[in-house]
Design a protein that fits this description.
By secondary structure, this protein is of the alpha/beta class. It is built from 10 helices and 14 strands.
Length: about 280
């Protein structure tokens, strides 16, 4: 896809004050690397006194490799907005969770509407690798959408026995879009449904929780308005923040929903799409 640009800057007054970037399919390339050009662009943002934030579906425990490659430890919106994580100090600042009661109802609805689906939850402790809290817990036979060596497999009852920042529903024989379509209208009173891959995995968060709500939580502490932010993303879970910020940028490899929500389409994550936009203001 050819890049497109809307000739407007956040706040219409100059460069953005806060840059938010998704990770997978956006900030990193297909080999999960932060390129030298992207690293330099992020460092230029920070050196100018502006704020760079990661905004991702990843849990805090998967932020470390990105921080190491960036050479910068930013605040991070994790778990699609449910968790605010201070990567510099390895502290979970806040977490919004689905209750045990809501998890049970959501699981029952999922199993009745998406035949043969598998269930798992993300929990969070006080730090990224809090040993006191098993963080990814799945039902027997859960089929992972990606490598997840820190999984704890246990009974269905145990999976649903504690509050969780996300409920994950997996059905590899369906697309994520079809799964979301089958479930969303039935659970809107209990959870928000989104997905970050179309490979048969949807993610449920507490109502009103999104990357947009997480970014606003961070921005309020800095006195930054949504109009002063720029955000980058590639999947439906990025749509709330792309539409909330002053300037939303979809990657050239983005899902159609992200492209439709964005003010601009840059090049792909394999072609330094984030850096190419940031270099307009910081270099």
């Amino acid at each position: 896809m050819q890049p497109t640009q809307r000739p407007v800057t956040p706040g219409e007054t100059g460069r953005p004050r806060l840059v938010a970037s998704d990770v997978d399919g956006t900030l990193i390339d297909h080999h999960e690397r932060v390129t030298a050009r992207t690293k330099a662009a992020v460092h230029a943002v920070v050196a100018a006194g502006d704020t760079f934030v990661l905004s991702t579906g990843r849990p805090p425990r998967w932020i470390g490799p990105i921080v190491e490659q960036l050479g910068h430890a930013p605040m991070a919106v994790c778990a699609n907005g449910a968790v605010i994580y201070d990567s510099e100090n390895d502290v979970v600042v806040s977490a919004r969770t689905l209750s045990v009661t809501d998890l049970a109802e959501l699981a029952a609805l999922a199993e009745s509407l998406i035949a043969g689906c598998g269930l798992a939850v993300e929990r969070v402790g006080r730090s990224a690798h809090d040993a006191a809290t098993p963080q990814f817990v799945s039902c027997p036979g859960y089929e992972h959408a990606w490598l997840n060596p820190d999984n704890t497999e246990t009974s269905s009852e145990e999976v649903l026995s504690a509050p969780a920042v996300k409920l994950l529903i997996r059905q590899s024989s369906m697309t994520s879009g079809d799964m979301a379509a089958a479930l969303t209208s039935h659970v809107e009173h209990l959870a928000d449904v989104t997905f970050s891959t179309d490979n048969g995995l949807i993610e449920l968060s507490p109502p009103g929780v999104s990357k947009a709500s997480g970014l606003l939580e961070i921005a309020r502490t800095l006195g930054i308005d949504a109009s002063e932010m720029i955000a980058f993303g590639d999947m439906p879970n990025d749509v709330p923040m792309l539409t909330m910020v002053g300037h939303g940028v979809a990657m050239g490899n983005a899902h159609p929903a992200a492209i439709a929500a964005a003010d601009e389409v840059t090049t792909s994550n394999a072609d330094d799409g984030v850096a190419r936009v940031l270099e307009r203001w910081w270099s």
